[in-house]
Structure prediction request, 177 residues.
Amino acid sequence: MIRNRQHGRPTSLTRLRAEMPEDIDAISKLTTAAFENTEHSSGTEAAIVDALRAASALTISLVALENEEIVGHIAFSPVTIESGAEAWYGLGPVSVRPDRQGYGIGKMLIESGLAQLKQNGANGCVVLGDPGYYTRFGFTSDPALRYADVPAEYFQRIVFKGPPPTGAVAYHAGFDA
Ligand SMILES: CC(C)(COP(=O)(O)OP(=O)(O)OC[C@H]1O[C@@H](n2cnc3c(N)ncnc32)[C@H](O)[C@@H]1OP(=O)(O)O)[C@@H](O)C(=O)NCCC(=O)NCCS
Prediction:
């Protein structure tokens, strides 16, 4: 295990790739461990990832590896938006193994996932989470775009192309897991 903190960066041995079938158990365990002690956890994040996969709604699923061990994971899935905008996606769940948090692995996963989404032709992406974290990736909140009764600042979006969508956003049914 590499524990040397390199100015907040992942180690040079951290690499990303798309999930493979043999990663599924490790992703589930990692997701449970990452969210275990977070106050905003629903406790269902691992089940959500599994439900999205089962519904072929894991548009992007990336793992971060160090010494062939999975230390991070990020999922993206389609969302629907009241104004009818197409090719919009939701970021999350995103998980980094507790002992590897704060080393830039989340940043690697988010930046790479967003770049892939954009390259695949997505128009934009939404995220539900701490605004202090996600604004650094270009997410901003828009009072015209809402998710349930979540306060506006906790629900953010990044537009890749096209007009900013408006109205209520619905995540994939896998999030009801
Ligand atoms: C959130 C998470 C994915 C971030 O990954 P990470 O590899 O730890 O984050 P990074 O190293 O890329 O970024 C670290 C920076 O983000 C900040 N940060 C990390 N998690 C944060 C959070 N939940 N809210 C606000 N800031 C956060 C750190 O303070 C640090 O700030 P700094 O760069 O100014 O020092 C990871 O901490 C995690 O798995 N947390 C538990 C699960 C979770 O909350 N997932 C997100 C749900 S919205």
The first strand starts at residue 15 and ends at 18. The longest helix spans residues 105-119. The domain at 15-176 is CATH 3.40.630.30 (Aminopeptidase). The pocket of coenzyme A is lined by residues 8, 34-35, 38, 92, 94-96, 101-107, 129-130, 132-133 (CB under 6 Å).
